Amino acid sequence: MIKIRDLFNLPVGYANHTAFDDPNNSLISILGATMGFNILEKHYSPDFGIERIDYHAAIGKDKMKEIIKLMELVLNIYGSGSIDMSDSEKKYGNIGPMKKAIVAKKDISKGMKLSFDNLWFKRTQEESYIQQNQYLKLNGLETVADIKSD
């Protein structure tokens, strides 16, 4: 799927014809979504399991709802490719005990500039008032006081 997408530079989807009674039907159906593909062709029948044309791969309403829910979850986890943090990532990564806090790698003297060379993330027992998502904003700022390591 990836090679086809890259070769033609067009949206690509997964045409799934897994047997309706395969115990892994839902999992197999969402595998394309785990690679970021949001198009799924799936056979549906209101007469689930009843022999008719194409019934072997046709699923019913409950299975379709399950697959849609799982695809939405997987695609949300996969993300959009943006480096912006989601609301749940911001909420989780803000402050708090045992979250990784931004700390000084070594002693930083007053008047020095903060940089990626003298800051890092470290798990701490104490809460930090500096949120993790502020890390990039600290780069280049001049310190107004001495900062001890950690």
Condensed summary:
The chain has helices at 2-8, 25-30, 61-78, 87-93, 135-138; strands spanning 14-16, 40-42, 100-104, 119-123. It is α+β, with helices and mostly antiparallel strands.
Describe this structure in words.
α2 (25-30) links the parallel β1 and β2 (40-42). It is built from 5 helices and 4 strands; from the N terminus they run αβαβααββα. It is 28% helix and 11% strand. The strands form 2 sheets. It has a two-stranded parallel ribbon with strand order 1-2. A two-stranded antiparallel ribbon has the order 3-4. By secondary structure, the protein is an alpha+beta fold. It folds into 2 domains: 2-78, no CATH class; 87-138, no CATH class. It has helices at 2-8, 25-30, 61-78, 87-93, 135-138, and strands at residues 14-16, 40-42, 100-104, 119-123.
Our count of domains comes out at 2
For the largest beta-sheet, the strand count, sense and barrel status come to: 2 strands, parallel
Individual helix count: 5
Strand order of the largest sheet: 1-2
Uncertain residue segments: none
The count of strands amounts to 4
Q: Judging from the principal axes of the Cα atoms, what is the shape?
A: elongated
Radius of gyration: 25 Å
Written as H for each helix and E for each strand, in order along the chain, the element string is: HEHEHHEEH
Instruction: State mean pLDDT (0 to 100 scale).
Output: 88
Q: Given the helix and strand composition, which structural class is it?
A: alpha+beta
Helix percentage: 25-40%
Strand residues, percent? 5-15%
Distance between the termini: 47 Å
